[in-house]
User: Fold these one by one.
Assistant:
Number 1:
Amino acid sequence: MNDNETPHKRPLRSARWFRKDDLPGFVHRSTLAAAGWSREDLMTRPVVGILNTWSDMNPCNLNLRALAEDVRTGILEAGGIPFEIPLMSLSENIIKPTSFPFRNLLAMEVEETLRAHPFDAVVLLGGCDKTQPALLMGAASARIPFLFLASGPATPRSATGGQLANATGVWRLVDQLRAGQTQCDFAAFESSVMGTVGHCAEMGTASSMSALCEALGVALPGSSMVPATDRRRNQLAREAGRRSVELAAVGGPRPEDILDVRAFDNAITLLCAVGGSTNCIIHLLALAGRVGVPLTLERFDEIGRKVPLIANVQPAGEHLTERLMTAGGVPALLKVLGPLLHLDARTVDGRTIGEIIDSAEVLDPEVIRPLDKPVKPGETLVVVKGNLAPDGAVMKACAADPKLFRHRGRAVVFENVQTIADRIDDPALGIDENSVLILRNAGPVGAAMPEWGMLPLPRQLLERGVRDMLRISDARMSGTAYGAAVLHVSPEAAVGGPLALVRDGDVIELDVAERRLQLCVDPEELERRRQAWQPPVRVHARGYRRLYDQHVEQAHRGCDFDFLRGADADTLPEGLF
Ligand code: FES
Ligand code: MG
């Protein structure tokens, strides 16, 4: 036990269930006697939950069933009592209309599950990319010590003897296919693109989130990039189990002890350094809201100006995450980033970030570059503002064609995702490579924010070799994707944001260096359009989606529910126990 932990030693939460010789104590113990636990076990040992998002329908999380067994073994080895609880699983490519709105539902399930059960600490098992932030958000609000373990990246296979198949490769292939430029055997690609169990293996949202968990200090150092099928991940699971018992025994550190301003700054620094997913901006904003850290979009831009792209990993670079692991993993990345980090930030490991990076080493400087030899020059993630996005919008600059960083073009507006598919290849649209493709009504309220921000390019332009155009939307973009996409425009069109007022042919100006996004239309004309604007009819009359429509916040605040910001300590009335 080191200094990092000594201030805690809070009384065990589980004692309120199990350590009293009264009728409720009798009921709780006798109930779990049926699960094989003795009175002595329950009265003397800390209790650790394993929250598992495993599902047959979610191959990204499929190995979590086996990992939970290893976590369980670790908990038993350290003298704790493990209880595994299944949760809903969010399978990114399967769940309709998009997995995004269910992040908040899973976060609520996590929070209430933790609060309702006699856990002294918890190990969170997630992988596919909405499961991770949901687990973090729920656990942060429940204020119970936790440790996160990801399923790990999949191990991509070669489709046809050529390049390894992965999600970023799918996007490139789709463009080539639409341009009539590939002979690829699509069926072979389809059967191998997900390769093995585990989450997407480039620096998409899942890999970005699990890497961020190390920088936030809520995952074991070096754990995030180990592939799902690698036995080292099983060893990490046992270690997580053992460590969780230590957290349980002393009652901390709790989420709010770790997730402070320093932790978020460190996470944003890493996100920029790996050219990570823009979705993580939304998830970090939401998580910060849970722990009362006043994080804003501006902070991402401030930090982003100082952080070069040092991880040579797709989609901004060349390699997959396994190469990042063999190059030293996140601890090595953090070591390079050391001068930009808060080294005194605490972690669930018990050490500070500074202590962790002391023993880290870069093993492959081609994959993890020094600060002065980045993969590409310039900033990776930028935040732009202007009369088209008064509350901001984001862009993954490192995955876009720099020729579009200063661009002026005429808008071609798509009212919703359906109209893109119907019209994008219509020669009558009058699109050229300077046009600015606009997608609206795809924000958090408008359409539960699907990953449609990388609008497809028109076939006739792809055939002419065009591979990037400026696209602007209130949607998100897959972390595995790339292109000059200005995303998360806030406020969104469906709540009356200026994006709703754009018309075909309007001139739009983007200036990345100036961080400016401007709709070049007279203010009087915009005001006339605003007066004529009608909000879209809300379609959900009942159920969770109605709750979602009524309470989801805008992208620049993380799309959490307004009533979920903040955290509660144990709110269970003492008298009941
Ligand atoms: Fe699950 Fe990419 S589809 S992480
Ligand atoms: Mg996704």
Note: The pocket of FE2/S2 (inorganic) cluster (ligand 1) is lined by residues 60, 92-93, 128-129, 199-200, 204, 206 (CB under 6 Å).
Number 2:
Amino acid sequence: MIKEGQIGVSTGNIFPIIKKFLYSDHEIFLREVISNAVDATQKLKTLSDVGEFKGEQGDLSVRVSVDKEARTLTVSDRGIGMTAEEVENYINQIALSSANDFLDKYKESANAIIGHFGLGFYSTFMVASKVEIITKSYKDEPAVKWSCNGDPAYTMEECDKSDRGTDIILHIDEENGEFLEKGKIESLLEKYCKFLPVPIVFGKKQEWKDGKYVDTDEDKVVNDVNPLWKQKPAGLKDEDYQAFYRKLYPMSLDEPLFWIHLNVDYPFNLTGILYFPRIKNNIELQRNKIQLYCNQVFVTDSVEGIVPEFLTLLHGVIDSPDIPLNVSRSYLQSDSNVKKISNHITKKVADKLEEIFKKERTQFEEKWDSLKIFVEYGMLTEERFYDRAAKFSLLKNMEDKYFTLEEYKRVIEGSQTDKHGTLVYLYANNKEEQYTFIDAAKGKGYDVLMMDGQLDVHWMGLLEQKLEKTRFVRVDSDTVEHLIEKEEKSTVELTDKEKENLTEAVKSLVPPIAKTEFNVDFKSLGEAGRPIQITQNEFSRRMKEMSAMQPGMAFYGEMPDMYQM
Ligand code: ADP
Ligand code: MG
């Protein structure tokens, strides 16, 4: 006998769970309430567009206010409001959202809606002991007052409210008094609401008068309703992008190198601007500066796992309603949409670099020293990117001339081949210390590359694997003397296990920027294509040497036993 049934939820139990565990960050309640107000406003605009709402829209600003004495925080909008029935449906039933119904109905003309899961509203109970809703629908129906003090029981009654729209009144509880502080709210608005599409007003603009700041009569709008990434690239100038960069990173002193304006609507929706920051060699990179938005609501500035590792070094914004943002990070990383988006971004970045390389090679070369760390990092960590970037990544020689891999091959083909037909790329990483060797090599008619970047050692290792018959040899190693004549020591193939240990070892050598899987082989730590076999002392010496070469970075790590002599 089969029994069928429906799993029941006991609201008495579910409430404390929602209150405690729904979101890890209490502060996001404000984002949720304001995004509901924005949704309600956007819906009103949509209804007005399709002629279903014929009245005056009036001032559609969303207003946030705090009353410290009454311990309340209020968010008011002039959106569509709710009828008693809608409150019954969408508020009294947890996890029911009106977003899908609305989008289904107004597919063609709907403005973007933030809500989705029907959970956001209840996040208010993380900070409030009591929540009141006073709402009046755009439909000609009485206003409703709903009130709940954090257990499943609520009250609902008709009330007086002449204006269309909704006030959400949060009675902030004892532990969360910080949310009654003006400064705190300002910083949250700055973080989450800076680019929302509807004006958000908090307090009055101030002016300097008689030695202090005083409020004026003018409302203070905290957001930019039409951020640059939402605008059409064709109408934008370089200065606009530079100004927007300063808006995103007020503390940054440098102009970005260049930028990519992302604008995709098929097969997923994605807009944004990615900036390549200017990096002086050997300066600690700042990662995770990209901000992720969902319909202009700030979601996170930790994009690890969402964009490919090497792109976390870029700056800028990504906005997509298709990234399921309200869910956990581990889910995000396995989501297929997210994977597609991430591949797409990688492709766009490669396209842009290739375009600049082809159209403005001189400019590209000028920027290469700043740029190359991204490109090398990308090539080391993303197969797909390697294939693209191999065409435009550059090698710089001692005369500061730049060559593509293909071009450079032709430069040394005739003169720098050993007896096995392997091309030998000579390089230096310290002009001052190695100048006698550099001069000697040049005297022999050889060309010497400059390889002093943070990732050059690893990159050369990668190129040795990828390019046929290619070896990188440091200019002061003894092989240079006998470049053509000397019999090579045979190389030892590493077993898989050894390679695995190697990768681990390399990872521990490379500072945080390069902590992903490199498929680097130990020979890139040694030289001349031989797997390294050295004493622990020698190993430590080299680590010190590498650290000295790269000011501000410490190389450390332990030599796996099997590589010790
Ligand atoms: P979601 O935003 O994901 O739909 P919420 O829990 O945040 O879920 O809100 C549930 C529903 O309550 C919304 O879908 C909307 O119908 C209604 N709602 C909440 N706030 C407002 C508001 N300020 N104006 C009109 N409707 C609102
Ligand atoms: Mg919501």
Note: Residues 263 and 447 are 43 Å apart (CA to CA).
